[in-house]
Amino acid sequence: MELFIFARFHASAGNESAVAVALDAVVRPTREEPGCLSIHAFRSIRDPGLFYIHSRWTNEEAFDYHASLPHTVRFIERVAPLIDHPLDVTRAELIS
Question: Is the pTM of this model over 0.90?
Answer without folding.
Answer: yes
